[in-house]
Specification:
CATH topology: Rossmann fold
Mean pLDDT: 80
Number of strands: 7
Largest sheet: 7 strands, mixed
Radius of gyration: 22 Å
Helix content: 25-40%
Low-confidence stretches: 5-25
Shape: elongated
Order of helices and strands: HEEEEHEEEH
Number of domains: 1
CATH class: Alpha Beta
CATH architecture: 3-Layer(aba) Sandwich
Strand content: 25-35%
Length: 197
């Protein structure tokens, strides 16, 4: 009996190593997507500021999955799509690119003395109803000035989306995120001006 069991294990192992068997049953090709920065033309009077940056999210969003929230409270990953990197890391890079290209701020890893921006990603998913679906993003931003005073602001955006393809899902998520990035940049500029006064 143990000889038969050993033979079966070896057959399964050989199938996995040769690529004939897909672990997890996910045999469809997966496409990777990224977020794009919100590009704005730098203003001539925009001064660069140092900035500490912290990005966080809940455990579900700390992944590469594109999540779909169904009307019946079911949550599922979009089968054919993934983000190119875990969402908090990708959001961080996209925000830094947005800030650098707009001239609003210079983001440094650890400036000796600088205000801090903390971003908590609260929603980043497709909400699928009976008749339509929306790409929804929301964040809570906290600005901590050099005296320790904290200002908070919530940002939320939603875009209609078709669930027909992975590309349309990722594109709608990107549009919603760029809306958030644009509003966040304007808020940061206001906070930075208050910091200088």
């Amino acid at each position: 009996m143990s000889h038969i069991f050993r033979s079966l294990v070896l057959l399964v192992l050989a199938a996995v190593l040769s690529g004939c068997l897909s672990i997890g049953g996910d045999s469809k090709p997966v496409t990777l997507f990224r977020l794009n920065p919100e590009l704005e033309t730098p203003g001539s009077d925009q001064a660069a500021i140092p900035l500490k940056l912290s990005i966080s999210s809940g455990s579900l969003l700390n992944s590469q999955r594109l999540w779909v929230y169904h009307q019946d409270s079911q949550v599922a990953g979009f089968a054919e799509a993934r983000w190119a990197m875990p969402l908090p890391e990708m959001f961080r890079q996209t925000l830094i690119n947005s800030l650098e290209q707009s001239g609003t701020a210079i983001v440094l890893e650890s400036p000796a003395r600088a205000p801090t921006l903390r971003v908590a990603i609260r929603e980043f998913q497709i909400e699928a109803g009976a008749a339509n679906a929306d790409a929804v993003t929301s964040i809570k931003a906290s600005w901590v000035n050099m005296e320790g005073h904290i200002s908070h602001k919530l940002f939320r955006s939603s875009e209609p989306v078709s669930l027909d393809s992975a590309s349309s899902v990722a594109t709608a998520m990107d549009r919603a995120n760029r809306q958030i990035l644009g509003e966040l940049q304007q808020w940061l500029l206001t906070e930075a001006v208050h910091e200088e006064q």
